[in-house]
Automatic annotation (TrEMBL):
GO terms for molecular function: hydrolase activity. The keyword Hydrolase applies. Residues 1-31 are annotated as: Disordered. This is Dienelactone hydrolase family protein. SUPFAM superfamilies: alpha/beta-Hydrolases (SSF53474). Residues 1-23 have a biased composition (Basic and acidic residues).
Length: 241
């Protein structure tokens, strides 16, 4: 089914870490927004995001990924009643990712052709998923929590990055106060110790995200937006095979 629609992904009946069965009342299905391409899909991308509803810019970006042949699924990480301002990490994050991953597998996507993409704190989540799940590639944009964890359920990225199991791309603004450049450089070094391909890109003068034009008056928006989007597409093209 091509186009944009909503679906629900059942949660795994057992905890993959402990093997314990999950009680049905504690395992509601995960609401998804799904975008499917025309014709056969090349693979799937799980887009983690920070709000109950998708921003127009993010939805357009997801449509562009679909236009490149990917099935895109965006799980509602707040379906348990958390508010938009909350950050979803820990067991709940992995339960929701696993449900989205399994949904894609049931659609015929091979595990190594599943990627994960996140922006801001959801980019932090994307890196953490890539340290603990057998996926094909991960991309984080402006992911904070580099030197200090965002919550007690997250790990500081400089400690998580050496454990990456999937090729990871990180995109950062060099002037972003939420992700100081010296911390980004430490993250670059930490990621280089992972046994997979990693790349950290910084954009001089950019105060925040490089993927959306018009957000930062201190940077060459058009150039950085085009470059960032190209790198995201190329990363998935190279590693989801």
């Amino acid at each position: 089914m091509s186009g944009v629609y909503r679906d629900h992904a059942p949660v795994r009946a057992t905890d993959p870490e402990t093997g314990d069965r999950r009680p049905p009342a504690a395992s509601p299905p995960v609401p998804l927004i799904v975008l499917e391409p025309e014709g056969s899909a090349r693979g799937g991308i799980v887009v983690l995001h920070e709000a109950r509803e998708l921003a127009d810019a993010l939805l357009e970006f997801m449509k562009s990924l679909t236009g490149d042949g990917w099935i895109v699924v965006a799980p509602d990480l707040f379906h348990r009643g958390a508010t938009t301002g909350d950050k979803v990490f820990g067991a709940d994050l992995f339960v929701d990712f696993d449900a989205s991953f399994d949904w894609l597998i049931r659609r015929g996507v091979f595990p190594d052709c599943v990627g994960v993409l996140g922006f801001d704190s959801a980019g932090t989540a994307a890196l953490l998923v890539a340290t603990d799940r057998p996926i094909g590639a991960a991309v984080s944009v402006a992911a904070p929590g580099i030197a200090e964890p965002l919550t007690d359920q997250a790990t500081a990225l400089i400690h998580a990055a050496p454990r990456l199991q999937a090729p990871w791309l990180g995109l950062y603004g060099a002037a972003d106060s939420a992700t100081p450049l010296e911390e980004v450089e430490c993250l670059r070094d930490a990621a280089a110790r992972a046994p997979v391909a990693t790349l950290v890109v910084t954009y001089p003068g950019l105060h925040h995200r490089a993927d959306e034009p018009g957000l930062d008056a201190h940077a060459d928006n058009e150039h950085t937006a085009v470059d960032a989007r190209t790198r995201i597409f190329d990363w998935f093209d190279s590693h989801l095979r």
